[in-house]
C-alpha cells in the first residue's frame, strides 16, 4: 500500500460523527457498542441492526487462517457452492490504516435504502461515481479521487483526530483491523478490503444479522487464544425499540 492514514479509534461516538459528515442522518441510525456475545448482551443493542463492525487483533495465525479461508471459498464458489455477491457494495483497501473508514463505508453503502444518504453528500456522490467499478477500481478511487470528485480524506483525518485516546502516527504499525458484517440478499457477508473478496458466512436476515454476525465473531475470538483486543460496534436504530 502506498498512502497511509492515521487510523480511526474503535469508538461508536467517533464513527457516528464520521457517518454524519458523510451524509447520514444519525438521529435515525447511529453506531453503538455491543458489550458482548451473550444473548442478554446482544438483546441490549437497539433494533434494527443494519451492520456490525468488528475490530480484532492481527496475528500470524489470523493471517494464515484468512488466507486458507479465501482459498477454500474460491474453490467452493467455483463449484457453485457460494452465491454470487450480487448487490454487495465492496471495495479493496489500498490505503494503509484505512480499514476503519473502509468498514464504515461498507456498512453505510450496503444500507442506503434504510439510511437515505443526503443528496450531494460523500456517500451519495461516491456511490454514483463508482457505480459499476471493479472492487479494485473502487478502492483506488477512494485513495485517488479525480479533481472535483468525492474525497473522504479530510473527513477521515478529522475523525482520526478525536476519541478517548491519543491517535498513533500514520507510520506506526497497528496490529488491529476493522471489518464489517452486512446482510444482503438473505446472506451474511464479511467485508474486509484486505481479503480476496466478500466472505460468505451462510444465511441471515435483517432480523437475525446481529446474532448471526456474533456467531462468526465468536469463531474469531476462539482463534485468538485469549486475546482481549476485540471490539464490536453495531450500526443500529438510534435510541432503539422498546
Which regions contain 5 or more consecutive residues with pLDDT less than 50?
none
Q: Report the sheet-strand fraction.
A: 15-25%
Shape: globular
Largest sheet: 6 strands, antiparallel
**Structural class by sheet pairing and helices:** alpha+beta
Number of helices: 9
The tally of beta strands, per DSSP, is 6
Rounded radius of gyration (Å): 17 Å
Helix content: 25-40%
* Mean pLDDT reading: 92
Give the distance, in angstroms, between the N- and C-terminal Cα atoms: 45 Å
Order of helices and strands: HEHEHHHHHHEEEHE
**What topology, given as strand order, has the largest sheet?**
1-6-2-3-4-5
3D architecture notes:
This protein has helices spanning about 10-20, 40, 60-80, 100-110, 110-115, 120-130, 135-145, 155-160, 210-225, and strands at about 30-35, 50-55, 175-185, 185-190, 200-205, 230-235. The protein has about 240 residues and is an alpha+beta fold. A 6-stranded antiparallel β-sheet has the order 1-6-2-3-4-5, with helices on both faces. The longest helix has 19 residues, at about 60-80. The radius of gyration is 17 Å and the shape is globular. The model has no long low-confidence stretch (mean pLDDT about 90).
Amino acid at each position: 500500500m502506498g498512502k497511509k492514514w492515521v487510523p480511526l479509534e474503535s469508538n461508536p461516538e467517533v464513527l457516528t460523527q464520521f457517518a454524519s459528515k458523510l451524509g447520514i442522518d444519525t438521529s435515525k441510525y447511529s453506531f453503538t457498542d455491543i458489550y458482548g456475545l451473550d444473548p442478554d448482551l446482544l438483546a441490549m443493542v437497539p433494533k434494527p441492526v443494519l451492520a456490525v463492525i468488528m475490530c480484532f487483533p492481527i496475528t500470524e495465525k489470523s493471517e494464515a487462517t484468512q488466507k486458507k479461508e479465501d482459498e477454500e471459498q474460491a474453490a467452493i464458489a467455483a463449484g457453485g457452492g457460494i452465491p454470487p455477491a450480487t448487490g454487495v457494495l465492496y471495495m479493496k483497501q489500498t490505503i494503509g490504516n484505512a480499514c476503519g473508514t473502509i468498514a464504515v463505508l461498507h456498512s453505510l453503502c450496503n444500507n442506503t435504502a434504510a439510511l437515505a444518504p443526503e443528496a450531494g453528500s460523500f456517500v451519495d456522490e461516491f456511490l454514483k461515481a463508482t457505480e459499476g467499478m471493479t472492487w479494485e477500481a473502487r478502492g483506488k478511487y477512494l485513495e485517488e479521487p479525480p479533481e472535483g470528485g468525492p474525497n473522504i480524506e479530510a473527513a477521515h483525518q478529522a475523525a482520526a483526530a478525536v476519541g478517548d485516546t491519543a491517535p498513533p502516527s500514520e507510520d506506526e504499525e497497528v496490529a488491529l483491523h476493522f471489518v464489517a458484517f452486512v446482510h444482503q440478499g438473505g446472506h451474511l457477508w464479511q467485508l474486509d478490503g484486505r481479503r480476496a473478496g466478500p466472505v460468505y458466512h451462510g444465511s441471515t436476515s435483517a432480523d437475525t444479522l446481529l446474532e448471526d454476525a456474533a456467531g462468526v465473531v465468536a469463531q474469531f475470538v476462539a482463534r485468538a487464544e485469549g486475546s482481549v483486543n476485540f471490539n464490536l460496534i453495531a450500526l443500529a436504530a438510534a435510541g432503539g425499540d422498546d
